[in-house]
Amino acid sequence: MTLAIQRFLIAVMALGPLSLSGQRFQGYLNAGINLAQIDGDKLAGFNQPGLTGGLQVNALLNDRWEVSMEMRYSQEGARRNNNDDPAAPYERIRLNFVEVPFMLRFNEWKFQLGAGASYARLIDFKTIDAFGDDVSSLQDFNANQLAAVLGATVFLTPKSGLNIRWSKHITNLQSDGNAPRWIPRAISIQGVFLL
Q: What is the pTM of this model?
């Protein structure tokens, strides 16, 4: 685990006991898994699992609408499976991001729908080629990424729920303009816990 990831997880755990619940604001802890892929790398399917989690603050606008901001760690990437193109040059790509999603959320009964955008900073990555060699030093990725985000939460209790989120980057991961466009995508399944 890299030093940046360790620092982020320590910060999340240190802030966890703080209660952000109030009349106009609510704080949540999110934790779960990502299933990810990268469009353009010749590897198909959401085969790369990863961890995701962080803190979320919601500003309540009225009974139905709220806006939120999060600080989260997210592992994305791609992984080869048996149905992939044999000419694909990669076995596995692991991307580690720190993200700041901003979302508008709508509440109805025990359900919440959300849409927004996310800024992501690539803090670490590892690329393994088809022969099993680490070729990370040969990659040049754009560290700053923007993504579109859609999500839905069902609250199982007044203080906890299950969230499913889809995200797709709108910026090219590849920094070389002559390289094929790489667009990361992820489906997140996570628990949501009111602080």
A: 0.86
Q: What is the pLDDT of residue 149?
A: 98
Question: Which residue is listed with tokens 């959320």?
Answer: 105
Q: Are 114 and 103 in contact (CB under 8 A)?
A: yes
How much is the mean pLDDT over the chain?
Answer: 91
Comparing CA positions, the residue from 72, 78, 114 lying closest to residue 95 is 78
* Sheet strands (E) in the chain: 25-39, 48-60, 65-79, 90-108, 111-129, 144-157, 160-169, 183-194
Residue 146: which CATH number? 2.40.160.20
Q: Is residue 20 part of a domain?
A: no
Residue 13 in this model has a pLDDT that exceeds 90? no
Q: Is the dihedral of CA 148, 139, 34, 57 positive or negative?
A: negative
Residue 139 CA to residue 145 CA, distance in Å, equals 16
Specify if 137 maps to a domain. yes
Q: What is the mean pLDDT of residues 56-68?
A: 96
The residues, ordered by sequence, that sit 6+ positions from 157 with a Cβ below 8 Å of its Cβ are none
What is the domain range of residue 86?
Answer: 3-13+30-73+82-194
